[in-house]
Amino acid sequence: MFRNCFKFSYSSALFIFSLFVYCKVFSQDESNLPVIKKFQSYGSKALQEKLFLHTDKDFYVAGEILWFKIYYADGAFHKPIQLSKIAYVEILNTVGKAELQAKISLEPGQSKGSFYLPVALNSGNYTVRAYTNWMKNFDAGYFFEKKIAIINTLRNSELPAHKDSVSFAIDFFPEGGNLVSDVPCKIGFRATDIKGKGVDFLGFVINDAGDTVTRFTPFKFGIGNFLFKPLSNHTYKTVILLPDGRNINKPLPEVYNYGYVMNLYDQGGDFLRIAVHRKKLPGDQIAEELLLAAHTRQVLHVAEGKIIENSDSVIFLIDKAKIGQGITHFTLFNGKGKPVCERLFFMKPTSAITLNVKADQDLYRTRYKVSLSVNALYDHEIKTLLNLSASVFKLDTLQPIDQDDIINYMWLTSDIAGEVESPGFYFTDNPGVDIAVDNLMLTQGWRRFRWNDILNDQNSFIKFLPEYNGHLISATIKDHGKAVSQSNAFLSIPGHPFGFYVSKTDTNGLVQFEIKNYYGNGYIIAGPQTQTDSFYKVDILSPYSGSTTGKRSLPYTLSTGMKEQLLNRSINMQVQNIYSGENLKKFTTPHIADTLPFFGYPEVTYKLDDYKRFTTMEEVLREYVQEINVGVKNGKLTFKMFNPALHDFHEGDMLVLVDGVPLADPDKIFSYDPLKIKKLDIIQSQYVLGQSIYNGIASFSTYGGTLDRSELDPRLVAIDYDGLQLKREFYSPAYETKEQLEKRIPDFRNTLLWLPDVTTDREGKTMIELYTSDQPGKYMVVLQGMSAHGDFVSAHTFFEVK
Fold first, then answer.
1. Among the four given CATH numbers 1.10.287.90, 1.10.3720.10, 3.40.50.720, 2.170.130.10, the one describing domain 604-722
2. How far apart are alpha carbons 756 and 768 in whole angstroms?
3. Class of domain 54-160+553-588
4. Residues 228/214, Cβ–Cβ less than 8 Å
5. How far is CA 110 from CA 68, 85, 113, 408, in A?
6. How many angstroms separate the CA atoms of 484 and 507, rounded?
7. Angle at CA of residue 356, ends 353 and 361, nearest 5°
8. pTM of the shown model
9. How do residues 645-686 score in pLDDT, each as one tens digit?
10. Which parts of 321-379 are beta strand (E)?
11. CB contact set of 252 (below 8 Å; sequence gap of 6+)
């Protein structure tokens, strides 16, 4: 059911679009059909999802609350989608271990959550990671990741002291992928320090005779390029001269005797010029058909074939109007359909909406009202509503200005493998941006898929279904260590209302239950649906990804100048938790429209307090439950459900539940204390649930709604299990009256506002109001968001409090 629905609803548009482009570009030449068909086949199954988390800030003190909003879009067209209904958010430490985890409901405009950062956390850099169950089918590079810092001021810090010495790393990236002897090539390079920041230097390429062939320096952020033609029978190395006087030798990438080189030229006009040079193996055919494919986020835009002959070079002219905005991936295939060169090209997206935010003043006093006007400017007549999140926080050396936002993440950093320093720079109109972004494309790799997987027609990547209707809880059932296949199993969630689900194991003993509306912390009970004695073992699987983070997380370094600010942050956190602790622990109970049990409205309900209370369940069922007949079989009490349609009693299994937990032996209900039972719901007719058929249902509910675990059948497993995270309410006091203004309760908030559900009106406008705290300083206002048509917007401003 899941797979068919998914393919039709969300992949068909991508496939049809790719097929249209394919028919257009290959109407005359069909020699490269296998490559294109396999690409289309992969794209029709491997729908990409993107998540972006807007956190309220980037620096935290243990004991504070981290707030976040999730934006969810498809990875190809950047449109809002509703495929997955659950997102998994984690906070990983420096070794990639999850310290905090949460399941967040992906509701349109309401996908928000929070983490209380416990004082047990160590100080250091952490990674906030988010993904869906479907995204686990692919590399962890698909996951959203963001670096934050958490400092624990209540524990002895093991953070390294700040050092002025800089570690240095440099990497070289031949354009297209490889260096080939006697063929000119552009080589990109990237030099960084231990924190991943760009480093300036002077570099030289030296040949084996000791002669300087060329010299090079970075253009921006330690990134640049130089032209180089490696000659046959020569070796080369580079010498790097750092500003501190150190010299570092670094070899160039391997030079091949034969192969292909691809050079991309953008002169700022309407066309890209892509030159391909070939140095063929002796004996190879002179004429060879090459294929150049260009796709943007797995949507194929160009597929052009050309014959390369005696000159061993060929030129492709690509109309920029035919490729997509953002990162386009150019791949060159040789005559055998093998990818031999790759090159990324970035086209800065044109913004359909410009978002502005402005404070009514530049300077405020403490405990004063701040009014923020939000205004969206549209470059088209159709004005769409914007869904935004807003944060207002204090700036200092601990909390710098973050240049990463939803725009540069969705269009740039989410589609490349390496880390990008100051990604916002590439979306400006500053001098040299075009050169800098092309250098960035030279030194970054594509992370969305591997061509080998596509060409080998790998279909086995789908191991995790999209959670289209609710959270999927997975378990394995084994008997003496061997998988139990094609066996019915159940999962129960005690409570009011309880949850009861049935499913069947696959050939590997895996069973999955689709859970709806399970919020907060509780416990679940699972087991096989069998009355026979067995040694079945049920293991509940973690829904979180076991993949490690792909980006490095370096230790956080402290300088002596941070001491006073850390002390202030620590005091502020403790004061807020003491005086406003109760306000920080308020959660919103989600509105659940359907509170009925799985069988809907019962046919008959008995509220036991309405009747004479008996001391045994046998007496209760005999005296006034007319739908059930109690008898004795083989010396044991037993009972049957009356079927009014047959005017007789059912023969066969009846489902008996206590707080949603089925009794493997229904007759064990006679051992329960009836004084603990609040009501009995009855379904007399035959009931079909999944692949199970029950001859009536008798559902007993206790006063507490949670079955005592000591009463469980030993074959069942009961574990504590966190459901979807409850929404925490952000606390922000108001100072509207004189009495409120003169309250002596201290207000030491550093985050003045977190508002995850801001919506503009039809004209793209709205107002946001907040109050300053007792903390003077410079404050930053950040807004992130997107429209229903997939337009990403971001805006910020500043004000000061004295």
1. 2.170.130.10
2. 12
3. mainly beta
4. yes
5. 11, 12, 9, 22
6. 7
7. 170
8. 0.90
9. 888 888 777 899 999 999 888 888 999 999 999 999 999 998
10. 326-333, 339-347, 353-359, 363-364, 369-378
11. 172, 179, 187, 205, 228, 230, 236, 237, 238
What are 484's two structure tokens?
């139990």
CATH 2.170.130.10 residue window(s) in the chain: 604-722
Per DSSP, 484 falls in state: -
Instruction: State the first-to-last Cα distance of the chain, in angstroms, to the nearest integer.
Output: 60
Residue 36 phi, psi dihedral angles, 5° rounding: -70, -40
Residues 138 and 152: their CA atoms lie apart, in Å, by 35
User: Which has the closest alpha carbon to 301: 12, 80, 24, 31?
Assistant: 24
Distance CA 493, CA 121 (A): 31
Distance from C-alpha of 667 to C-alpha of 681, rounded to nearest angstrom: 17
What is the bridge-based pairing of β-strands 727-728 and 636-643? Answer: unpaired
Q: Using alpha carbons, list the distances in angstroms from residue 726 to 87, 134, 470, 518.
A: 14, 23, 15, 10
Q: At residue 673, what is the residue type? A: D
Amino acid at 169: A
CA–CA distances in Å: residue 266 to residues 223, 274, 275, 435, 446: 18, 9, 11, 10, 20
pLDDT digits (tens, 9 = 90+) for 89-139: 999 998 899 999 999 999 876 799 999 999 999 999 999 999 999 999 988
Spatial separation of the C-alpha atoms in residues 794 and 353, rounded to whole Å: 10
Contact 376, 758 (CB under 8 A): no
